[in-house]
Each structure stands twice: as structure tokens, then as C-alpha cells.
Amino acid sequence: MNSGKPAGRGEATSVALIVPSSELESFRGPFVGAPLQGALSVVSAAHLQPVLLMDDGRDPGPLLHYLCGGHVDAAVVILLHESEMLFKALGDVPGPVVYVGRPTLELDESRFWVDADHYGGGRLAARTLLEAGRRRLVTITGPMTYLPAQQRLNGFRDELVEWGLEPLDVAHGDFHMQSGAMAMANLIHRTPDIDGLFSGSDLMAAGALRVLNASGRSVPEDVAVVGFDDTVVAATSAPPLTSINQPLRELGARAADLALTAMKDGTAEPRQLVLPTTVTWRESV
Q1: Where in 21-105 does DSSP place strands (E)?
Q2: Mind listing the pLDDT tens digit for each residue in 119-136?
Q3: Which residues contact 256 (CB under 8 A, 6 or more apart)?
Q4: What does the pLDDT look like over 60-115, one tens digit per residue?
Q5: Are the C-beta atoms of residues 244 and 284 closer than 8 Å to each other?
Q6: I want to staple 196 with a disulfide (CB 3.0 to 4.6 A). Which of 137, 173, 205, 227 is the partner?
Q7: Considering the domain 118-245, what is its CATH architecture?
Q8: pTM for this structure?
Q9: Contact residues for 264 (Cβ-Cβ < 8 A; gap 6+)
């Protein structure tokens, strides 16, 4: 991708914020809304015009035509994992393009991106359970085709190895509540004497909590549970869920910062930022 501005352009005036059209109903949710709010705050503070653009995940032609037509000076792409076709097409867009999240290894050092430390978050989840005295640990992962799910699982496993342990069992979900419930039911059937669970998302953890409660297991007395994302789901679960926080709003803000910096310096080399995750403690551990 070219980092310079199109020939003949004056001062920077606008920044595109690109999201999948499939996420229109989720704008109030954390994974679109929070990064958008962060990016908007930076763009607005710089007195630039944000331009919201939709990717339908099928034909990137109209969107690329707009981006290449000199209408915007930079772009921030949110939820790239649902925009693979667009990712492959964005290399020749004039002006910097910065991605929120790194869902694929193809998003390498040749592109600008900002992501949370999913690997470190997986280690942090394991450490939280281990330091609470739990030793018979299982995990529910997201889809293994998705890089953050792989990284969270790898971090969880690596932390256990340092403690001389391994996960008793691993079940796979799709980050949604029903898959967490099904995975938890399978884990209980295969490994009934667990005392700790790391769920790769708060939604899957909420489904797992329902199954644990229905099976007569008390949380956290019998099974401690740690989720991931630190969303409103974690705060409103029964019991409220200890969760690994990924700084979603800050991801959008830092991506916009990168875009504005690259706009000012047309020769800027692509940069990648990994933001730390933290534990939000609640009553499930």
C-alpha cells in the first residue's frame, strides 16, 4: 500500500472508518462500538471528518473505488476477520490503512495494525486460576481458524507448562453463548472433576456458567471461571465473571493515531502495536 497522499491533494480533511455491514446491529456492542468510539475521538480531536464506510464481505470494488478516488486521506479498518476479501484488495489504496486487530498472520509487518495481547491474556487467565489454587483446568476456545483464539489457547497452555501442568481437556466453540454451553456439557461429561475453566470469550463463559449451575456445581466454590473480553456480559453474569480485559476503545484510538501520524509523514514505515491485557476481578474466582 502507498503511504503518501494522492497527487494534487491539499491538507488532510477526512478519515474513513470501515466496518463490515454485517455488524450494523452491533454498533452498540463492544467489538464495533468501542473501537469506533476510540477512533472517532481521535479523528474529531484532530478536526478531521470521519467517514463511515461499509464492507459487505463480497465485492470490494465500490469501496475500493471510493478509497482510491481521493475522497479520504486515510482509513481505519475494524473487524478485519470478516473482511478477508477487502484485506487482500487494500494493498494499492493511496494513503495509510490501519487495521484494528490482527486476525491472520498475513497481516504482517508490511501493514499498519493495532491489536490486544491475546497470548499474554491467555497466560494471565491461567495464572489467575492457578494462583487461586486451581489445578484441574480446562478451556473452551474460539474457532481455531481465528488467530486470537489460537494465541489465547497457546498462552493458556504455556503458562500451565511453566507450572508443570497441562490442560485436562480442551473444547472448541464459536465465541457465542450456545457454543459455550455445549462445550461445557461435553467437558463435564469427559472430565467431571475439573476445578477451573478458562473461556476464550465472555459469551461462551456465560453459556458455561448456566451448564455448571444446572449440573449442581457452584461457581467459584467448585469451579472457578475466567472469561475473555471484559464485556457487559461478564459484569451481568451470575455470578459476575472475572475476565481478561482487552482495551477495545484504546485499540480504535491508537489505530487512528497511527493513521494520522502516517498521513503527516508520507514516508512512514508500517508500525504494529500490541496493547496489554489485564484482569478485571469479579466473583467467579
Answers
A1: 49-55, 74-78, 97-100
A2: 999 999 999 999 999 999
A3: 15, 38, 39, 40, 41, 42, 43, 76, 98
A4: 888 888 998 889 999 999 875 656 667 777 877 888 999 998 767 666 777 899 99
A5: no
A6: 137
A7: 3-Layer(aba) Sandwich (3.40)
A8: 0.89
A9: 12
